[in-house]
Amino acid sequence: MIQYEPHSIRERLTVLYTPEDADNAYKGIRELINGYRERITSYDYHLSEKDAILITYGDQVQSPPEPPLKELNDFLVSHIDGLVNAVHLLPFYPYSSDDGFSVVDYKAVDPHCGSWSEVEQLGTHFRLMFDAVINHVSQFSDWFKKYLEGDPDYANFFIDADPTQDLSSVVRPRTSPLLHEFKDAEGRIRYIWTTFSRDQVDLNYANYKVLLAVLDALFFYIEKGATLLRLDAIAFVWKEIGTPSVHLPQTHELIQLMREVLHKVAPEVIIITETNVPHQENISYFGSGDDEAQMVYNFALPPLLAHSVLTGSPAKLLAWARTLTLPSDKVCFFNFTASHDGVGLRPVSELLDIEDIAALEAAAKRSGGLVSYRANADGTQSPYELNCSYIDLLTPPDADDAVRAKRMLLTQAVALAMPGVPGIYFHSLFGSRNYLEGVKMTGINRSINREKFNSNWLDEQLQKEGGLERRVYLAYKRLLSIRINETAFDPFGPFIFLDLHPSLFCLQRESRELDSHILAVHNFSGETVRFHLPDYLELPATECISNIYVTSETLQIESYGVMWIKCRIDVEAFEACCNQALPIINEKEFE
């Protein structure tokens, strides 16, 4: 029998449940911990500059009759092995809709993708991040079927709400109804809580048996090789009528409990929360800095970067970046620009003006993209998400591909240079364009950014001289090759943001030991810009991307250009700059 300190787990359970249910939950958790501890081997791991996570579907590249997961493994090993060390597999479980996010069976692999064998083989080359889609399950899952059949083991697994109750205070991320009708085995109508769609029925965590079932699934993922777990739509996980049912105290308590339980078996596992909400609400999921998510999606970054490119000014991006704070040196941001979803607008609702948001909408539509809306409490609708490939959002459709590539790579360079761990959507590696045919086939806006590829066709594009895909791909690999070899890009290292020119977004990155230094300069202007290096930087230095020496204090950077300058610094002058002018994350490094 495994021995461990149970007190905080008990205390958390008593916050969420009645004394009797808390006792039963504790017993179930103890059995899970003891059982999985015998099957899971824990390895110590610490994030570093070597960490970059590729976000991809399990069937992203295909070459029949090979299982797509095997083909994905072969493609990634051939094209990015050594540059990206982790793969986020978007839901690869059997599903009924939403490209995997309506999970039918948490513990199975969609046979169209392959099997657990292929997943585990991928794990021999890359660290694995699995999606924990635990706010809801498919209406076709066994759990929901048994609930409707009246199986007592699944009683109260879902929320049957009274439609006459006032539910207007519930925050709605979609325009679809909050409740949907389902008929149980006895012919009674059940009004089931569905935050996102009819096919995604929300789980009821007020029933401790739901918690145990989900913890079992999470432990199973770790057993199958997951070292990172993405908690999908986790902000909505605890519901309570009469409240907004988002960001409730119970939600934070639940995430902290899950982390604590999982870490009893595998303390190296990283919890990443996906909460596409305003920035201050988003970062609340760091908790105290040592008890909740170790990484949080930096949702404000994609729209702010797009705004900066479209306006030619990173002023609002810089203003936001200077507010970034972390509760400890044990957590960091997950920096990304594109994903399987669109570009969320809620995270910048308090950072960009209405006119700025409208300009982003117009840019998406100009390229053939779409806009998704959510329902407000007053019955109106507001834009929720831009559905558009990221490269098409940044550049008008009639622009030259050279400009298109430069604008795209500019945004990717910023994401790679930002403190934290970069998340790279598969399509961003080579500048994938809008998949308009996909939207026509599915009628779903998000299909525009979810195209799957024949691996031979994709290989041909990446070999085509002068082609957009090859241009972006080779430049991206160059950026990655630099990043993973510079300790100044440590996710937890100190940094400051500098104001060297109105068109430039500049940040100074430092290793935790202050023995490696990089000044990252990014030009959001369509013109060449001259700027003066900060006084604390000592010459000569090296510009890493072009691999040239820097001997002058005044430099120029081309339109949409990127310069990563590896340098020596005058530590006293640097500390003075940090202490007097700019906010810093991890200020203890300079005490």
Task: List key phrases describing it.
disordered N terminus; 25 strands; alpha/beta; globular; eight-stranded parallel barrel; 591 residues; 17 helices; disordered C terminus
Classify the beta-strand content into a percent band: 15-25%
Bin the helical content.
Answer: 25-40%
Computed structural class: alpha/beta
Strand count, sense and barrel status of the largest sheet are: 8 strands, parallel, barrel
* Tally of separate helices: 17
Rg estimate, integer Å:
24 Å
* Mean pLDDT metric: 94
Strand order of the largest sheet: 1-3-4-9-10-11-12-16
- Strand element count: 25
- Shape estimate: globular
Oligomer kind? single chain
Q: How far apart are the termini?
A: 45 Å
Q: Which spans have pLDDT < 50 for at least 5 consecutive residues?
A: 1-6, 580-591
Secondary structure blueprint with pairings:
Blueprint: H1 7-16, H2 19-37, E1 53-56, E2 61-62, H3 68-79, E3 86-89, H4 116-122, E4 127-132, E5 136-138, H5 142-149, E6 179-183, E7 189-193, E8 200-202, H6 208-223, E9 226-231, H7 249-263, E10 270-273, H8 279-282, E11 295-297, H9 301-311, H10 315-321, E12 332-335, E13 343-344, H11 354-366, E14 370-375, E15 381-387, H12 390-394, H13 401-417, E16 421-425, H14 436-442, E17 453-454, H15 455-463, H16 468-483, E18 495-498, E19 504-510, E20 517-523, E21 529-532, E22 537-543, E23 548-550, E24 554-557, E25 562-569, H17 571-580
Parallel strand pairs: 1-3, 1-16, 2-17, 3-4, 4-9, 9-10, 10-11, 11-12, 12-16
Antiparallel strand pairs: 5-8, 6-7, 13-15, 14-15, 18-19, 19-20, 20-25, 21-24, 22-23, 22-25
Helix pairs in contact: 1-2, 1-7, 2-6, 3-4, 9-11, 9-13, 13-16
